[in-house]
Amino acid sequence: YGSTRPERILAEVKRKATRGDARSVVDTIDQYCRHQEWAMNVGDEKGTILDSIVCEVKPRAMLELGTYCGYSAVRIASLLPPNSRLITMEFNPVFAAIARQVIAWAGVEDKVVLIEGPSGDWIPKMKKEFGLTSFDLVFLDHWKDCYLPDTKLMEECGLLRTGSILVADNVICPGAPDYLEYVRGSPRYESKYFRSHLEYTRVEDGIEKSVFLG
Ligand SMILES: O=C(NCCCCc1cc2ccncc2s1)c1cc(-c2ccc(F)cc2)cc(O)c1O
Ligand SMILES: [Mg+2]
Hints:
This protein has helices at residues 5-16, 22-35, 43-57, 71-77, 93-106, 119-122, 126-130, 147-156, 171-175, 177-185; strands at residues 61-65, 85-90, 112-116, 135-140, 160-168, 189-197, 204-212. By secondary structure, the protein is an alpha/beta fold. Strand 1, helix 4 (71-77) and strand 2 (85-90) form a beta-alpha-beta unit. Helix 2 packs antiparallel against helix 4 (71-77) and helix 8 packs across helix 10. The longest helix has 15 residues, at 43-57. The chain is globular, with a radius of gyration of 16 Å. The chain binds the ligand O=C(NCCCCc1cc2ccncc2s1)c1cc(-c2ccc(F)cc2)cc(O)c1O and magnesium ion. Magnesium ion (MG) is lined by residues 40, 42, 141, 169-170.
């Protein structure tokens, strides 16, 4: 019977990573996905860029769109200051179920809230549901053609404040051309491209960091 790739990643984490050690969970997934089977985690190279931005911003309230197996949620949560929280959103219930277990194994479940469902449904509800005023940092790593509409929706719902930072994965591969054009062309954003590679490959990819100017 065929297990799914996320199930095989979880099995590897339970076999090789130390419970409660977020770093070992991240390293185990990177090793597995580099040497056994590729998977769409942000990965070690782009992950280091993400880490530096999380450490610089020290977000109290952070949103991740696209959880997958929980790799970046664990990476981010392990760097969050006390009393801060990552809300991570996953559309696919199979991915969400695996991610919950990966997040628990890493011992970061008290910093992470995983919500299931489509971003378009959730974004308008988030202020009320979570008693939020705005997000300090948003990591976009979900459907690439949703980056732009969801960014506009977050603006409309007042989830971004002057200084809120958007970090977008995969702006080259698979690519988010309409999103890039928007954040780079809009006077309401100050955008910067961090050149890197598609996770576990030599293919060019990159991360776009965009500061909302209000
Ligand atoms: O699609 C990607 N990631 C999104 C998965 C969609 C998950 C969603 C989450 C969610 C939450 C709320 N509302 C709606 C949605 S939809 C993705 C794909 C590649 C890639 C690159 C080269 C390839 F040859 C093949 C795949 C690499 C990456 O780093 C990715 O992130
Ligand atoms: Mg990605």
